[in-house]
Write a structure and sequence with these properties.
This protein has 461 residues and is α/β, with parallel strands linked by helices. The protein has 3 domains: 121 residues, Gyrase A, domain 2, CATH 3.30.1360; 125 residues, Up-down Bundle (Four Helix Bundle (Hemerythrin (Met), subunit A)); 166 residues, Rossmann fold (3-Layer(aba) Sandwich), CATH 3.40.50. It has 16 helices and 13 strands. A 7-stranded mixed beta sheet has the order 3-4-5-6-2-1-7. Bound molecules: guanosine-5'-diphosphate (GDP) and zinc ion. The site of zinc ion (ZN) has 4 residues, from α8. Pfam families: MMR_HSR1, MnmE_helical, TrmE_N. Its EC number is 3.6.-.-. This is tRNA modification GTPase MnmE.
Length: 461
């Protein structure tokens, strides 16, 4: 394929002392040679691939030195995009790296769109679709943890698992073929059934496990939906504000679900939170009534985490107790706020209502207790969950949909065998499942199924 040469700042993750401007495309070397001057006068077009060179960038219009740089020269196809790639390493700092990018753009490169390097890697066959999507997620990843999930996927974890499952299905299909070709042998049929149930059962289990991770994957991408509840004036809005101030607010492209619920995205010790203050729903209304309102109920129902705020300087009221009831069985942290004021609340009753859920005392006015609250949030999320690095996650909604369909097809095949449905009907479900899994990793389907069947298994012999 032929593409123009694109360029962008691709500063490595983590440390930013060095910034990189990356070029990819047929003209990458030509453009670099226009700008690069090495002390020995060599041209990048003549150097060995995958080597790095010291020199200066000059502006060819004025012959003035722009920047002191190290340039990596990498010839396709052994690059991320499979194209010729030049990486210009310059001293960090926004000004200098932007100056280098501008220079490159003035001399024949085009500014890359977000994710365009990845798109090329996919179009040039360097990575499969699920890997490409993982990189896209990476670009959008909102926290370190979300990033490590995206990275794991990029390394092909999901792809590897899907390939393995497809292989299982393929082997089953091969046996089904034999069965269809030699229906007169009874033992072949029985073998086929046993094997089919065994292998399909395995695939079903793996798909179920994978789909179970999708909820967590979603949380990592979109944030733990966290609802702040409490009766008026206990400090809900104050809590939202201090969490948002203490933590870098996360920029998001997810549209607000509703105007009357206030939303903030924050990153609390690696846990992405989508904070919802139900107080946004008119506070003058009676809270019991409010909880009864369909919308609030919906917000509560969809919550992953509840922050229930109480007022230390007031006695517990029936409103408080009703709120406890409304969040029964949910993950919650009980916050006893306004500890700077004299205590009037009955802590024994609070503890009884809280049950096994953590209670944190705060004074939002005096900025106390926030640290402990953050710790409690992080504990709650990370304790109950398996380390992101150990698992294959799905978090991409297209993958989730395809995996769900593939699971359904496998289940159909299994129940088909169990109910004595003709094997060539079962074969259709198996094939469908195989195809759907193929779509996850972007492998095209129909004829390749036949090809693979016959290249991998010697059938009918
Ligand atoms: P909401 O109605 O639950 O959202 O409560 P707000 O956050 O609007 O707070 C109600 C009032 O309580 C405001 O005047 C706050 O300044 C005050 N407030 C919030 N937190 C504290 C606290 O820890 N101590 C004291 N003394 N006042 C607080
Ligand atoms: Zn409020």
């Amino acid at each position: 394929m032929e593409f123009d040469t694109i360029a962008a700042i691709s500063t490595p993750m983590g440390e930013g002392a060095i910034a990189i401007v990356r070029l990819s495309g047929d003209d990458a070397f030509k453009i670099a040679d226009r700008l690069f001057r090495s002390p020995s006068g060599k041209l990048l077009s003549n150097v060995a691939s995958h080597t790095i060179h010291y020199g200066h960038l000059i502006d060819p219009m004025t012959e003035e030195t722009v920047e002191e740089v190290m340039v990596s020269a990498m010839r396709g196809p052994k690059t991320f995009t499979k194209e010729d790639v030049i990486e210009i390493n310059c001293h960090g700092g926004l000004v200098s790296v932007n100056r280098v990018l501008q220079l490159v753009l003035n001399n024949g490169a085009r500014l890359a769109e977000p994710g365009e390097f990845t798109k090329r890697a996919f179009l040039n066959g360097r990575i499969d679709l699920s890997q490409a999507e993982a990189v896209m997620d990476l670009i959008r990843a909102k926290t370190d943890r979300a990033m490590s999930v995206a990275l794991g996927q990029m390394e092909g974890r999901l792809s590897r698992l899907i390939k393995k499952l497809r292989q299982e299905i393929l082997e089953t299909l091969a046996h089904v073929e034999v069965n269809i070709d030699y229906p007169e042998y009874d033992d072949v049929e029985e073998m086929t059934h046993t094997m089919l149930l065994e292998k399909s059962g395995y695939v079903r289990e793996e798909l179920q496990k994978l789909l179970q991770t999708s909820q967590q994957g979603k949380i990592l991408r979109e944030g733990l939906s966290t609802v702040i509840v409490g009766r008026p004036n206990v400090g809900k809005s104050s809590l939202l504000n201090s969490l948002a101030q203490e933590n870098k607010a996360i920029v998001t492209d997810i549209p607000g679900t509703t105007r009357d619920v206030i939303e903030e995205y924050v990153n609390v010790r690696g846990v992405p939170l989508r904070l919802l203050d139900t107080a946004g729903i008119r506070e003058t209304e009676d809270i019991v009534e409010k909880i009864g309102v369909e919308r609030s109920r919906q917000v509560l129902k969809e919550a992953d985490l509840i922050l229930l705020v109480l007022n230390n300087s007031d006695q517990l009221t029936d409103e408080d107790r009703n709120i406890f009831k409304a969040v029964e069985g949910m993950d919650a942290i009980i916050i006893v706020n306004k500890t700077d004021l004299p205590q009037a609340i009955n802590m024994e009753e609070v503890m009884a209502l809280a049950g096994s859920r953590r209670i944190v005392a705060t004074s939002l006015l005096e900025d106390r207790g926030i640290d402990e609250l953050e710790g409690a949030i992080a504990d709650l999320f990370f304790e109950g969950s398996i380390e992101a690095g150990d698992m294959t996650y799905v978090s991409n909604s297209r993958h989730i949909a395809l995996l769900g369909q593939a699971l359904h097809a496998i289940e159909e095949a299994i129940s088909g065998v169990e109910n004595g449905i003709p094997i060539d009907i079962v074969q259709i479900d198996l094939t469908r499942s195989w195809e759907l899994l193929g779509e996850v990793i972007g492998e095209s389907v129909h004829e390749s199924l036949i090809d693979q069947l016959f290249s991998q298994f010697c059938l009918g012999k």
